[in-house]
UniProtKB/TrEMBL annotation:
UniProt region (Disordered), positions on chain: 227-246
Protein name as it appears in the record: Ribosomal RNA small subunit methyltransferase G
Binding site for S-adenosyl-L-methionine: G76, L81, A127, E128, R143
Keywords in alphabetical order: Cytoplasm, Methyltransferase, rRNA processing, S-adenosyl-L-methionine, Transferase
Function statement: Specifically methylates the N7 position of a guanine in 16S rRNA.
Top EC category: transferase
Organism: Actinacidiphila yanglinensis
Subcellular location: Cytoplasm
MF GO annotations: rRNA (guanine-N7-)-methyltransferase activity
Enzyme nomenclature, EC number: 2.1.1.-
Domain of life assignment: Bacteria
Family as reported in the entry's similarity comment: Belongs to the methyltransferase superfamily. RNA methyltransferase RsmG family.
Classification via Pfam families: GidB
Amino acid sequence: MTEAAAELPAPPEQARTVFGDRFADALRYAGLLADVGVQRGLIGPREVPRLWERHLLNCAVLSEVIDQDVSVCDVGSGAGLPGIPLALVRPDLKITLLEPLLRRTTFLEEVVKLLGLANVTVVRGRAEEMVGLLAPVDVVTARAVAPLERLAGWGLPLLRPHGEMAVLKGDTAEEELKTARAALGRLGAVGATVVHVGEGIVDPLSTVVRVQVGESPGGVRAATRRAKAARAHRAARKGGAGRRRR
C-alpha cells in the first residue's frame, strides 16, 4: 500500500445507501484510485482523504437527473469520474468512457474488468474526432474537463436528436452558463438549466448543468462531420465488398 492509499478514510454511511449491492465494488474502486490512481498520476494524493464525498458520491448522485435505460458517454473520463460511479449505481445505463490518453484508458479497462462492469465500454479518442464514429447517445456527461462553452463544443455533437448533456460543475456554473448561452444556441441547444442534486447524501450538493438539444445536436458543423464520416464508412464497406468479390 502506498503512503497516499493509507490516507483513504472509511466510507461514510451514505455510500452504503447509494451504492447498495455494489458497495463492495465501490470500495475496491476507491482503493484503486487511492493506490494505483495516485501512482499513475490520475488523481492527486491530496484528493485521497476526500475521495468519497468529493469524488465518488459527488459523481454517483448525477444519476438523479438521468433517465432509465439510456446510453451515456462520459467525455474526458480520466480516472472514470463520473462514469464508473454511475455504472455502479445504475446498471440499466449503457456507458461509454471516452478518454484520449493511453495511460488513462489502460487504467479504465483494468477497472472495468476487475469490477465486472458489463454495461461499460472504454474508447480511446478525442470527443471532437468521434462525431460520426461513435453511435449517438442519449446523454453526455463530464466532470472537470473544460469550461462549459468548450465542453459543449465537444459533447453536444455526440448526442442523438433531443438528447441531453448533464455535466458536473462547481461554484461557477451559473456564470459559465450565462457566458455560454449564445454558443450553446449555435450548437443546437434548445434549453439549459443549473440544478443541484444529492440531498441528504453530499454537502454541499452537487451542481449539474443540463443542456438539451433539438433536432441538430452540435449544429451545422457537427452535421457536416457526421455526413462526412458516413460517406467514408460507406466507401470503406464498398471497397471491402469489391475486394472480396475479386
